[in-house]
C-alpha cells in the first residue's frame, strides 16, 4: 500500500501488449546492447552507463537552449521561492540553499592536502505541481560542522491514509544533520560514518511515514555513501560519470524504504554502502527519484558541463538541474529512464514521470580554494 504506483500499472494486460508493440521501437533505441543487457536489473536505469549516451543526445543537441527553456517553463514557480522549510499553510514552494562546510582550525595555514578536502554544497527542491501547497514530500540536509549531506523522498502512498508523506523525510533529514554535526563537534576530522548517521537518524525519527534515503560523508579523500531505495548519488570527474549508486527495488517502482514501525518497511541496515576515493574538482550529485526517473547519467553530465562552463556555483547548478529534470518529466514523448524501466517490467508507459525533484550538488575542494 505504501509505495508509488505508476499509471502503467492501471492498464490491462491487453492494453499493455498493444501499446508496447507500438512504442517498443522507440524504447529499443535507448536499450543497451545484447552484451550489456545481462548486467542490468529490470528497474535500475541509473546503471545503464554508456548505453544511455544515445538517449541523452535526443533533444540535447543544444544543451544551453534546452536548459534555458526548462527554467523559463517554471518561471512562475521561481517567483515564490523561499528558504523556509515547508509548512501546511504554504501556498507555494521552492527552495534553494547553500553551505560550505567549515574548515577544521588545525588545517589553517597548512599546505593543501587531499587529506583535508571539503565540500561546497547547494540544494534545490522542486515539488510536484500538485504538492506545491505543502512543499512536496522530499527533503535534504547539508551538515554545518562536518562533511555530510543527504536526500530523502517520502513515500507518497501515506497520503491515502491521511498522513503527510513528506513529514517523515523532513524529520529524518533534520535528525541526520543533528547527528552529523554532533559527531564532529569539537573534532575537526573523523566522526560518524554514513551508515551510522542514517541508522541514528532513523532511530530518532518518530513521525509516521517512510522514505528512501541517501547519505554521504567525506572523511579525508574518501566519500562514504549509504543509499537505500531509489534516491542516489552520482560522481562526475573531468565532466564524465565516474560512479553512480545502483537502485534498490523490491519490484518495478517499489523501492526499498525505511519508516515508522507500522510501515512494514526495510531496516536501515539494508542500505547499500560504498566508499569512493574523491579528488579536488570532482562534482557530486545527489537526487531523489524525480531526478533519476527523468534524466540519463550522460544527459546530466552534459547539463553539468554546461553549468561549469558558465561558472555557476553549487546552488545555481542544483536549480538548473532540477528545472531540467522537470522539463523532461513534462515531456510526454520522451523515452525516459522510467519509461524504459516500465517497458522492461512489461508495462506500457511513454514520457517522463512527474514527481517531486530534489537536487543536491557538492563540489569537492581544497580549503584554500573555497
TrEMBL record:
* Cofactor needs: Mg(2+); Mn(2+)
Q: What is its EC number?
A: 3.1.3.16
Q: Which of UniProt's keywords are assigned here?
A: Hydrolase, Magnesium, Manganese, Metal-binding, Protein phosphatase
Q: Which SMART domains does the annotation name? A: PP2C_SIG, PP2Cc
Q: Please name the top-level EC class of this enzyme.
A: hydrolase
UniProt key word Hydrolase = yes
InterPro entries for this protein: PPM-type-like_dom_sf, PPM-type_phosphatase-like_dom, PPTC7
Quote one Gene Ontology molecular function term.
protein serine/threonine phosphatase activity
Domain PPM-type phosphatase: start-end pairs: 120-364
According to UniProt, the reaction catalysed is: O-phospho-L-threonyl-[protein] + H2O = L-threonyl-[protein] + phosphate; O-phospho-L-seryl-[protein] + H2O = L-seryl-[protein] + phosphate
* Domain of life, source organism: Eukaryota
Q: Which family does it belong to?
A: Belongs to the PP2C family.
UniProt protein name: Protein phosphatase
**Native source species:** Volvox carteri f. nagariensis
Q: What is the lineage of its organism?
A: Eukaryota, Viridiplantae, Chlorophyta, core chlorophytes, Chlorophyceae
